Amino acid sequence: IKDIKIDFFEKFSQAEDYLSRKKDEIKSSSKLQIICRGFYKDENKNPLNLLFLLNQHRLKHVPVLVFTQDKAGLQHHLQNQAPSMDLNDWKQRLFITSSSEELLTKIKQNISNKEHPVIPEKQTAKSKKKP
C-alpha cells in the first residue's frame, strides 16, 4: 500500500467539521475511507450519525468501516435506531468488525477496488442499451 494519509479525530464533532470543510475535495476523490468506532459516548453519536452526515454532504459513496468490541450489540442497536433515521441501507454501507485483521483486509480490499474499479452489473446492462 502506497501513499496513505491518515487524519485522526478523537471526537465525532471533529470528523463532522473535517467533512464539512473537505466535502468538495472528497466528492472529486474516490480514495477516502472512514474508520470509526461503534459509539462516541461523550457526544451520544454512532455510525448511523456518520451515514446521515455523509448523506447530507452527498458523500454516500465513501466507505465506512466500524471497529468495535461488541459487534453483535452494535448491530442490534443500529437495527433498532436505523428506521427512525431513515437509513434502511445501513447494513450495506457499514462494514462492522471487532477483528483488526478483518479491518485491515477490508481497507486493502477497498484500496484495490479503487485502483481497479468493478462496474456493477446494473450499470453494465444499462450502458449496453441504446435509446
Structural summary, described in words:
This protein has 131 residues and is mainly alpha-helical. The protein has one domain. The chain is built from 6 helices and 3 strands, in the order αβαβααβαα. The chain has helices spanning 12-27, 47-56, 71-81, 90-93, 100-115, 121-128, and strands at residues 34-37, 64-67, 94-97. Strands 1-2-3 form a 3-stranded parallel sheet, sandwiched between helices. The longest helix is centred in the N-terminal third of the chain and has 16 residues, at 12-27. The relative contact order is 0.13.
What Rg, in angstroms, do the CA atoms define?
Answer: 16 Å
| Secondary structural class | mainly alpha
Q: How many discrete structural domains?
A: 1
What's the mean pLDDT score?
Answer: 86
- Main β-sheet, spatial strand arrangement: 1-2-3
Give the strand tally.
Answer: 3
Number of discrete helical segments: 6
Largest sheet: 3 strands, parallel
